[in-house]
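Following the same procedure, sequence and fold were stored together, as reproduced here.

>
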Amino acid sequence: MYAYVRFVEEMGNSSLYTIPAKDILNFQPKDVNDFDNRTTYTAHWHDEANEENSGEYVIQILKLAASKKEMQQQLALKRPQIPKLNPSDVECEEEEQTQTKTKTARRIPTQDNGPVEGDLPRDQKLPREGSRKPAAAPGKKKSSNWKHTESSSDSDDSVVPASKLKSAKQEARFWRSQCMAERKLTASLKEEINFLRSKIVDQLTQYSESVEPAAPPPFSETSDGRFHLCNEVYTTSVQAAKLFSNKKPTILAREAAQLIWGIEVLAQRSVNGRVAPTKQGEASAQGNKNEPSEYCSHP
């Protein structure tokens, strides 16, 4: 995995760099979105051209990618914006820059007390303006030949001691890690709450459906699917549904009578005992035995 970073100490340089994510100290991202672009990290820079520039520097991560080729493709489409750093990181950065400027001012002699170019030998001429070689690496740190000024800077009231600055950085790094851990814990708790809420809603929905009384069937059916009308007179469920769909009692009684007397057993019977004519010319046929009154009294 590779990171597209900005070196924080190189304030005047707008150049951005792509470095391996493994060179960033205490940084193990799970995916390309597992970073904070408003905080600072410490990375190791290896300069092949000049080993003096190699070392640890403060950086700001702007983008992560799985490979260097993928990073180049994403940068070709859109350049990432540089957000403002957190106030705590900016304060630490300003303190470090102030200390560096103070050490530089104490090391360089003033124009009145310093040597003049004419007073020095030819091989010890003062360097002219613009003759200094530019730094090869971004955010280049000062060399170690200034260590003799650190002891005197600790006693200066206007300069923050290096020990206090180091402890402040450690404390800021600790609280930054605590903040990231709290954010992850809050996100996991929100996911768990949403999951439990959905489970509770599902349980309540199932419970409300189970306590609702079942709607009674429109009519009773036997095991074989027939409907018992009365006195062991059966009909189909379709005919029963059509019969009870009538709202007027007279129509209901008429259709019920038609249903009863349309049974095969009673098809040749009538109320007065005559044979029910089925064909033209059979009106003089002899009537059969009258049916019991119970068939007529219960339509």
Summary: The chain has two domains: 2-111+139-175, 226-297. Residues 2-111+139-175 form one domain. Confidence is low (pLDDT under 50) at residues 103-137, 139-155.
